[in-house]
Amino acid sequence: MNNTQRLTKMALLTALLCISAYISFPLPFTPAMVTALTLVATLIGLMLSPKDTFIVLIVYVLLGAVGLPVYVGGTAGLGKLLGPTGGFIFSWPIAYTVLSIFKGSERSFWQYAWRSIVITIPIVYAFGIAGFMLVGNFTFEKAVWGAAIPFIPGDVIKCIVAAWLASKVKI
């Protein structure tokens, strides 16, 4: 793959990540939202090299940090990064790059699915829970129940969908 193709793929996946932030809805008991971002971020980790995955996710974080409305629900800014849900945003370049490193060389739905689940979910929720506790002054128990438990089943499903897509798409 030449550099132009590589950069085009990265730009398209960055745009898809930004768009996916608008596919979200709130839950009444938590400031965290259900979003399609995690599905697309998982797809990025499975489809790109670790270096390209890291670049795409850092670009995404920086776009939102400078004020472009690319975070969940069209939000943006340092206030969002430093708010109770900022830990999730900070986790993505790490979690999905680690996924990209350990996804394996075989394009396999089952390998992608279980690796996505066991790699990304613990990393993302560790950062997210820490953010809730540090910034939102939540106890560990309240942070787990407000920022993790209600979202894990949906994230498992999103990992499975991303694994299926990544195992079928040839880019």
From TrEMBL:
**Gene3D superfamilies documented for this protein:** 1.10.1760.20
Q: Which InterPro entries match?
A: BioY
Localisation per UniProt entry: Cell membrane
> Any keyword Transport?
yes
Note the topology in the membrane. Answer: Multi-pass membrane protein
Entry similarity comment: Belongs to the BioY family.
- The protein here is known as Biotin transporter
Q: Which organism is it from?
A: Veillonella absiana
What lineage does the source organism belong to?
A: Bacteria, Bacillati, Bacillota, Negativicutes, Veillonellales
